[in-house]
Every structure is written in structure tokens, then in C-alpha cells.
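quick q for whoever's on today - can somebody do inverse folding on this one?? i tried earlier but teh output was garbage lol. C-alpha cells:
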């Protein structure tokens, strides 16, 4: 007869079964998803390996099969987001229409990225202050790509006489550094700001600084129904 005192509880059976069924890619994804959910919670607390793994069905030692430490996990999350940031920077001021309307479109795109990943980007930026490798990756993904795209666009605009004559060559870098900090402040914390207001603010700042004029209509009027919609696809 089985000794009932040695039989694991049902919850333990389920936990062991889940661990046995994990494929490496599934286990890694579970850890990353747990990190995203922890960062995005109302009260995230310090991200430690123990706290993170308590949110998964994996043992604490499983963390080190995929990541060296928490900064290494954040670098992995940044690589996932980097593709979206790169696509956003490619579209930033790459249009050939009215430059102020392009400001609206570009602001909508980057706000969409931060609506999806703003909490994670804020935590990465904070961790980057003590991690040079993470800092370099964050600057490349969140700032430098946009600076390059905007500078190229402004070169075309100067040839057309659309950019203010007193435009400074460092304008793109200053504006993008401001934009990055502003997006993390407004969309990287609870409670988040109204995305339409964030888009409106960025549109006015960029268009005034570069072209000396704001949109003729309030930014909300750019879409039917009276509000700008961030691209959250």
C-alpha cells in the first residue's frame, strides 16, 4: 500500500509535469514573458532572479540556462524591441509630403512602440546607467537610429528650403534625446498619459523647432472622430 504521507500534492505533480514538458525555447519565452508582466505590473518591485522565477513554473536554476544575470535578460528584451524601433526610425521623417503632417504620422508611430513596450524601455534605460553594454544598445536602438533618419530627412528639407534657416546641426540629436525621455516619462509609468496628448505635444515641439510652425489643425483632428490614434499594431 502506498504511504499517503509521501505522495506529492496535486499541485506539485502539475508543476513537475510542466517542467518536464518544457522545450528550451518555451522555457526561455516563459521567463521573458514573466519579466515583461512583472515590469508592467502596478507594483513591480525590484527584479531579482528569485522574484522573477516565482512567476514561472520553472525552478530558479533554469534562469541561468538562458541568461547570465538580469541585465543580460534586459539586453535580450531590448533586442526584441529593437526591430520595432528600427522600423519606426526608418519611417521617421522619411515622407515627401507636408513636413508637419509627417511629424504627426511619425509621432503616432513612435508612441505606438512605447504603448507596447514603454514599461520595459523605461526599466532598460534605468538599468543602463550602471551597465555600459546595455547603455550602448539602448542608445543605438532608441536614439541614434532616429537621429540618423531625422538628419537625413532634414538634409532633403534644407535643399527644398523647408527647414528654418537658423536650424542647428545638433537639432535632431537634442530633439530625439528629449523625445526619448518624454516618452519614458509619460508612457513608461503608471498611470500613463493620454496617448493623443503625447502625440500632440511631440508634433507641436518638433514642427515648431524645425519648421517654425505648428499643425494648422489640432492634432486630434488628424483622424475621423476627433482623436489621433497611436499605431499599436
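ok took a stab at it. sequence:
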Amino acid at each position: 500500500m502506498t504511504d499517503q504521507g509521501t505522495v506529492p500534492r496535486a499541485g506539485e505533480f502539475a508543476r513537475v509535469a510542466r517542467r518536464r514538458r518544457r522545450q528550451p525555447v518555451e522555457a526561455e519565452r516563459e521567463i521573458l514573458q514573466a519579466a515583461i508582466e512583472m515590469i508592467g505590473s502596478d507594483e513591480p518591485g525590484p527584479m531579482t532572479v528569485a522574484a522573477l522565477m516565482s512567476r514561472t513554473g520553472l525552478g530558479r536554476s533554469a534562469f541561468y540556462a538562458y541568461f547570465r544575470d538580469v541585465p543580460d535578460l534586459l539586453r535580450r528584451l531590448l533586442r526584441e524591441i529593437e526591430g520595432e524601433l528600427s522600423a519606426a526610425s526608418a519611417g521617421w521623417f522619411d515622407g515627401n509630403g507636408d513636413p508637419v503632417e509627417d511629424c504627426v504620422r511619425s509621432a503616432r508611430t513612435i508612441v505606438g512602440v512605447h504603448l507596447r513596450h514603454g514599461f520595459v524601455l523605461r526599466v532598460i534605460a534605468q538599468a543602463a546607467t550602471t551597465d555600459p553594454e546595455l547603455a550602448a544598445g539602448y542608445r543605438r536602438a532608441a536614439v541614434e537610429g532616429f537621429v540618423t533618419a531625422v538628419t537625413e530627412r532634414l538634409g532633403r528639407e534644407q535643399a527644398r528650403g523647408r527647414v528654418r534657416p537658423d536650424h542647428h546641426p545638433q537639432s535632431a540629436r537634442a530633439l530625439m534625446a528629449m523625445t526619448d525621455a518624454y516618452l519614458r516619462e509619460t508612457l513608461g509609468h503608471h498611470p500613463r498619459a493620454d496617448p493623443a496628448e503625447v502625440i500632440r505635444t511631440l508634433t507641436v515641439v518638433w514642427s515648431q523647432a524645425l519648421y517654425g510652425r505648428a499643425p494648422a489643425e489640432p492634432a486630434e483632428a488628424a483622424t475621423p472622430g476627433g482623436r489621433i490614434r497611436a499605431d499599436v499594431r
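fwiw The chain is about 65% helix and 0% strand. also The radius of gyration is 22 Å. so keep that in mind when u check it
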